[in-house]
Specification:
By secondary structure, this protein is an alpha/beta fold. It is 45% helix and 19% strand.
């Protein structure tokens, strides 16, 4: 009896894994395909008015291409964000088996499929306000007057305080794979108020930067490390340096 239960459980797990694998490719395909609808609709409207029978229509063509590109980018950003928001596709802190059978690991994979293409757009085309709107839409907490100049790998479990600056090419991770054990560990990254993360710095899972702390350019903060309030840290390995402006 117990053998049959184990066999049925294994069979169900395999079917669930295959189904989620299918969804992992189907959902992004549908979401990003829907993002093309505004582009196609606007092109149909435009080509109803332009016959390209005179030079003026051809002069307009580069401007039309640029406008259509902008429409496509904005629609993909909005639709992917709304899908994540409406269907509450979020993951939480913890250590999970890295497989399709694990619900939380599957959510992480799905977020990666939907979020990564949009993140790449923000890396290529600076859109500060729109980026902050998108990150807030999908569940990330960002304080007022904060500049997100780097890369946020895990927006669901990353929090930024107010008046904080993240320099260009800085990367904030909140997950680590352990391929030997077949697990993924997700741990929240929390950056306080009035903090600075220099260009090219790397912040690992579980890191907490207290208010007014500074991480210099190119610095590496290992997992679960705490950067104390008002302190300045640089380098790899990380070290504290004296703050001459400290009162």
């Amino acid at each position: 009896m117990s053998e049959n239960k184990d066999k049925n459980k294994k069979t169900f797990g395999q079917l669930l894994s295959k189904f989620r694998y299918f969804l992992l490719w189907l959902i992004p395909f549908l979401v990003f395909s829907i993002g093309f609808i505004p582009l196609i609709t606007s092109l149909m409207i435009i080509f109803n008015f332009l016959s390209f029978s005179n030079i003026f229509d051809f002069i307009l063509l580069p401007f039309i291409i640029y406008i259509e590109f902008v429409i496509l980018v904005f629609s993909e950003i909005l639709i992917s964000g709304l899908i994540i928001k409406i269907f509450k596709i979020k993951y939480k802190e913890g250590t999970y088996e890295y497989s399709f059978e694990n619900k939380m690991a599957f959510k992480w994979m799905l977020i990666c499929q939907l979020y990564t293409p949009i993140r790449k757009i923000f890396e290529i085309i600076p859109m500060g306000r729109i980026q902050k709107f998108y990150l807030n839409l999908i569940g990330m907490k960002i304080g007022k007057n904060t500049l997100v100049g780097g890369t946020i790998k895990d927006p669901c479990v990353t929090e930024l305080g107010k008046n904080t600056t993240i320099g260009e090419y800085a990367v904030l991770y909140a997950h680590i794979h352990n391929y030997k054990k077949g697990t993924i560990t997700i741990k929240k990254v929390k950056i306080g108020d009035n903090c600075i993360i220099g260009a090219g710095a790397i912040v690992m899972p579980g890191v907490k930067m207290e208010n007014n702390s500074i991480l210099g350019a190119g610095g590496l903060v290992s997992k679960n490390h705490i950067l104390k309030k008002g302190k300045i840290y640089v380098g790899n390995p990380l070290r504290e340096i004296k703050n001459d402006n400290r009162k």
